[in-house]
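Could you help me review a protein record that somebody else here produced? What it holds is a sequence and that sequence's fold in token form. I have pasted the whole thing underneath without changing anything:
=====
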Amino acid sequence: KLSKAREVLTIAVAPSFAEAWLMPNLGRFIRACPDIEVRLVTGDAGIHETDRNIDCEIRYGHGKWVGMDVEKIADDIIVPLACPEIAAKFGKNNEGNVLGSQLLIHTESRSYNWENWFRGRDEMPPENLIRMRVDRSPLAIKAAVDGVGIALESVILASQEIQEGLLVPIFLSTHPAAGHRRA
């Protein structure tokens, strides 16, 4: 039971962004604004549009949502990420064609996939492409940290793992992703 009335800030956010970026960074906001109680509502973008209790929504995408004031939070890029042990196999002259021997992890909720990545490098995907598909980015990031394979993932969502040296971008070519925006 709360000892005094507090303002409640209700934030609608995608589960992957909430788990991978917002939760690790939310403590700073809570310490800076101790009189505000934070309520997180997770789900896919737009499912909360009828909920009148939502104060703001963090969405991933183009930022052109009808009837919303939108503020861009950050740009994002998609890169192949691997644990340091796997990354060490590639050296400085990263060649996509060596990926045929590696398990490639794809997040199904992301439209940009490994085939797009190979085409962007003017390469054909290996015929013996070994793949694992997951439904959320945190699963792909965790699998890459654990050395299961190479994840094609968001730098923002993997920022903590990259900063801690648990994941390393292994190819210089990247794909711009839609920025995270607050609607």
